[in-house]
TrEMBL record:
Pathway named in the protein's UniProt entry: Protein modification; protein lipoylation via exogenous pathway; protein N(6)-(lipoyl)lysine from lipoate: step 1/2; Protein modification; protein lipoylation via exogenous pathway; protein N(6)-(lipoyl)lysine from lipoate: step 2/2
Name of the protein this chain belongs to: lipoate--protein ligase
GO cellular component, one term: cytoplasm
BPL/LPL catalytic domain sequence ranges: 18-210
Sorted UniProt keywords: ATP-binding, Ligase, Nucleotide-binding
Entry-linked InterPro entries: aa-tRNA-synth_II/BPL/LPL, BPL_LPL_catalytic, Lipoate_protein_ligase_C, LipoylTrfase_LipoateP_Ligase
Organism: Lentilactobacillus farraginis DSM 18382 = JCM 14108
GO molecular function: ATP binding; lipoate-protein ligase activity; lipoyltransferase activity
Reactions performed catalytically: L-lysyl-[lipoyl-carrier protein] + (R)-lipoate + ATP = N(6)-[(R)-lipoyl]-L-lysyl-[lipoyl-carrier protein] + AMP + diphosphate + H(+)
BP GO terms, sorted: protein lipoylation
Length: 340
């Protein structure tokens, strides 16, 4: 699975097929440079599309939340597929722990920080995301071992609000590769060998042959290809619709992530609104919120009332109606991403 789109499709298949009920672990090493964005992110606001097109970089939109990441052959992508027991969905610590344990064996003082960032020396390498269908979900992330950081810096252009929240000025200054942190004895370890160490940690064995393994059959791949063609290869899904609204406001909220609103106001009334962001409630009903705030007066009281009836916790995360109203009303949150 050297293609992020295929990895997404396989993950969804493993979640939805009644053939699988146990906890699964999957991984992939991309064959070429790609950018993977979150389900609710705005492509135009997050990516340098001119650079991406000029360098033939693939764009994949994951079904899960989280932010945009640049991946290439120096990257390892992994995911757990599990059943929600009421405690493990969005429990990033649970699924980060075996990864962190392996990295510590390699000499990396890694930690889970914020809601879903994996860091060393305050830099990401990078983070984790999750997505749920029914009672099955995946939770995973990427490990930057030998990624081209210059290319990542040029391909990604996160909103200024997100960089400000991290206290940095560019992607390059907030992410890092892992290899420089490896102990000398592991300085030349291959990604394949790192995968083997993770497998041994996850399955609590030193015998790789003892790990139960499922080999995908032709019928499995047929189902995966159908998912890919239906859900992941259309421009409407990958690129999304671009809106030319009057305003684009963005802010970072601790424990939630970046929330962005593209909106227009005519004669003191909200005439259009579209919500974006890297929050992990990827399956939230953003249309409910957008519908509720469209057509209401552009003032604090009216907007708060509209947001109060929009199930913000379920649809976005722990953000209040007051915060959302202020996000729209305060010009300090304007993010002129088109000028980047």
């Amino acid at each position: 699975m050297g293609n992020p789109t295929m990895f997404e499709s396989v993950s969804r298949y493993l979640m939805t097929s009644n053939r699988f009920t146990e906890t699964l672990f999957e991984w992939s090493q991309p064959l070429k440079a790609s950018v993977v964005i979150g389900a609710n992110q705005n492509v135009a606001a997050e990516l340098n599309l001119d650079y991406i097109r000029a360098h033939d970089i693939q764009i994949t939109r994951r079904a899960g939340g989280g932010g945009a990441v640049y991946v290439d052959s120096g990257n390892l992508t992994y995911a757990f597929v599990d059943t929600d027991d009421g405690t493990n969905y969005l429990n990033f610590k649970k699924y980060a722990t075996p990864i962190i344990n392996v990295l510590k064996k390699l000499g990396v003082h890694a930690a889970l920080s914020g809601r879903n960032d994996l860091t060393v020396d305050g830099k990401k390498f990078p983070g984790m995301a999750a997505f749920k269908i029914g009672n099955r979900f995946y939770c995973g992330g990427t490990l930057m071992v030998d990624v081209d950081l210059d290319a990542a810096d040029k391909a990604l252009k996160p909103p200024t609000s997100k960089l400000a929240a991290k206290g940095v000025k560019s992607v390059h200054s907030r992410v890092t590769n892992l290899r420089p942190y490896f102990n000398e004895e592991y300085r030349h370890i291959s990604i394949k060998e790192i995968i083997n160490m993770i497998l041994q940690e996850v399955f609590e064995t030193t015998d790789l042959q003892a790990i139960p393994t499922y080999v995908m059959q032709a019928s499995d791949w047929q189902a995966v290809n159908q998912i890919t063609n239906q859900d992941y290869q259309t421009d409407s899904w990958t690129m999304g619709k671009q809106y030319h609204d009057d305003y684009f406001h963005a802010n970072h909220y601790d424990g939630v992530g970046n929330i962005e609103i593209s909106f227009s106001v005519n004669d003191g009334i909200v005439s259009h609104a579209k919500i974006f962001g890297d929050f992990n409630q990827a399956a939230g009903n953003l249309k409910e919120i957008q519908t509720n705030i469209t057509g209401v007066p552009f003032n604090q009281k009216s907007l708060e009332e509209a947001f109060s009836n929009s199930h913000l916790t379920d649809n976005i995360g722990q953000v209040t109606p007051t915060q959302m109203a202020e996000l729209m009303l305060d010009s300090a949150y304007q993010d002129n991403f088109r000028e980047k």
